[in-house]
Specification:
Blueprint (H helix, E strand, L loop, with lengths): L8 H7 L4 E5 L6 H13 L5 E3 L20 H10 L4 E4 L3 H10 L3 E4 L1 H4 L2 H10 L7 E4 L6 H13 L5 E5 L2 E2 L8 E2 L3 H9 L5 E3 L1 H5 L5 H10 L4 E5 L17 H10 L9 H41 L7 H17 L4 H23 L6 H8 L1
Helix pairs in contact: 2-3, 2-11, 6-7, 12-14, 13-14
The protein binds phosphoenolpyruvate (PEP) and manganese (II) ion (MN).
Length: about 375
């Protein structure tokens, strides 16, 4: 048994000198498909765990929903052939029982399950007293606390070998991503659970083969501990997620071309970093003082608007301000998206300050919240 070792999987993922790699098909389709995929993956010498879904949470009811329990021995046989542990997705207590009965080594909870606290609790309860590594994907909606809550439910059930997987967040018709990464959410998770290993699943973020390498690299640059990537011997024939599955060979190439970044820096590197960080801190100071001064001016305008009964928002003026700044963004090498976010944030705060000045006797939501605390 692979999980009989005393060292927890989550600790070994965090401690490993190479990024951890879980690879395998989206779905286990046949004994031959999973065996051939496993053998080809093994040749890359990079894979740590073989993945395969047997219960597939599909969006539409007429899609392939997985083989079910019958496919678990096929996955295990493929793992044994390459001497690697296997991981499967579980979405309810029945899945947990079947996976444990067949001796599956690790379990993951999918995005469509993490979103539902009832389902998460059911799985956590089914695992009480069981020693098995569990990986928890983010919920489909960009709600950090829902992800945190799912992890807490497993911790409370006594599961102490937990790893998180970032697979992006649902979005309607995005030109680039199947699920937008919202990197600030996994970064926020690491702030809450410092020692929790974090993997990235670029396959479900991108949804297409091209672009997987770039997202995998970004995860490395952000100090993720590893990756979960879908791979199929014959992606064109895959019964699920065929646009995003890589051949084992392509996966091996992408993985070995990744630049591995380090956290620890040498004294000399630290010195150079500090010089640059000092410059940035000085600039941040200037920016913050300028914004503070700007908000003071907004309040002066608020006084004037109040005394003359003029509305805070002057639609035409705001339209012109935004158009001008968006046009300026390329000249100053800032993206339009960033410029828009920055101006919106400044404008929101400016409106808030003017509202206060214009309605000194009106109770604002903010004050109510304060007094409720
Ligand atoms: C999967 O890994 O095949 C899967 C269904 O993932 P997610 O839960 O991220 O959609
Ligand atoms: Mn998939």
């Amino acid at each position: 048994m692979h999980n009989s070792d005393k060292i927890k999987l989550s600790d070994s993922i965090r401690m490993a000198s190479k990024p951890f790699l879980i690879a395998g098909p989206c779905s286990v389709e046949s004994p031959a498909q999973v065996m051939e995929t496993a053998l080809a993956l093994s040749e890359t010498n990079q894979v740590d765990v073989l993945r395969g879904g047997v219960w597939k949470p599909r969006t539409r009811p007429d899609s392939f929903e997985g083989i079910g329990e019958q496919a678990l021995p096929w996955l295990i046989a493929a793992g044994n052939a390459i001497n690697k542990p296997v991981i499967v997705e579980v979405a309810n207590a029945k899945h947990v029982d079947a996976a444990l009965k067949h001796g599956i080594h690790q379990l993951w909870v999918g995005a469509r399950t993490t979103v539902n606290p009832f389902a998460v609790q059911e799985i956590a309860d089914a695992l009480k007293g069981v020693e098995i590594p569990v990986m928890i994907k983010n919920p489909i909606n960009p709600d950090l606390m829902l992800w945190v809550g799912a992890i807490e439910r497993f911790q409370k059930a006594g599961i102490d070998d937990i790893t998180a997987i970032h697979r992006g967040f649902s979005v309607y018709n995005h030109p680039k991503y199947r699920n937008i990464p919202n990197w600030e959410i996994p970064i926020g998770l690491k702030e809450i659970f410092e020692d929790l290993p974090l993997l990235c699943d670029p396959s479900h973020i991108v949804g297409r083969r091209d672009g997987i390498a770039a997202v995998a690299q970004k995860a490395m640059d952000l100090n993720f501990d590893g990756l979960m990537i879908e791979s199929h011997v014959n992606p064109e024939q895959a019964l699920s997620d065929k646009q995003q599955q890589l051949t084992p060979k392509d996966l091996g190439l992408i993985f070995s071309n990744l630049r591995k970044r380090k956290q620890v820096v040498s004294k000399d590197e630290l010195l150079q970093l500090e010089i640059m960080r000092d410059k940035i801190a000085q600039l941040d100071d200037q920016i913050i003082h300028a914004i503070s001064y700007r908000m003071g001016l907004a309040e002066e305008i608020g006084d004037f608007k109040r005394d003359n009964d003029i509305t805070i928002l002057q639609q035409d003026h705001w339209k012109k301000v935004i158009a001008h700044r968006l046009e300026q963004s390329s000249q100053v090498n800032l993206s339009q998206t960033f410029m828009r976010c920055l101006m919106d944030a400044i404008h929101q705060e400016s409106i808030r300050r003017q509202t206060k000045v214009m309605n000194p006797f009106l109770e604002t939501g903010e004050n109510q919240k304060k007094s409720a605390e």
